[in-house]
Amino acid sequence: MINYNTYALGREGYFALDLVTDEKAIAADKPHAAKLLAALDYKDGKRYEDFNASSDRLAEFGLAALVGGVVAKKLGFLALIGVAFLKFWKLALVGLAVAAGAVTKLFKRKSAPS
Predict the structure, then answer these.
(1) DSSP-derived pairing of the beta strands 2-9 and 14-21
(2) Per-residue pLDDT reduced to its tens digit, 55-73
(3) Distance from C-alpha of 15 to C-alpha of 42, rounded to nearest angstrom
(4) In the predicted model, what is the mean pLDDT of residues 80-85?
(5) Are residues 6 and 47 in the same domain?
(6) Do 41 and 85 lie in a common domain?
(7) What's the whole-number mean pLDDT along residues 84-106?
(8) Domain span at residue 47?
(9) Distance (Å, rounded) from C-alpha 29 to C-alpha 23?
(10) Does the pTM of the predicted model rise above 0.85?
(11) What SS3 state is found at 16?
């Protein structure tokens, strides 16, 4: 299977065109996808090229994050785990110490009374 993802950017969003096809049919399917992309047109003033720096706001993420959205989401999740670890590492350390003490107490031999 072959999966082509194409994004047509606009000022207020984007259109996504996904072509999922078989390797044998790719040559026949590419012209259909190109025809669909050529027919796509934003209204005047809504095209990506119509960006106005004085009235449009910039996105919090860049074009690379839009194209590699899945990677950005995964990295965001890992960063969230890292932040949580930084916030709660002391609490986790205390929990590990308590658990280690309980295990030690459980397996410690009792001394015989003299």
Answers:
(1) antiparallel
(2) 877 766 666 666 666 555 6
(3) 10
(4) 74
(5) yes
(6) no
(7) 84
(8) 1-58
(9) 10
(10) no
(11) strand
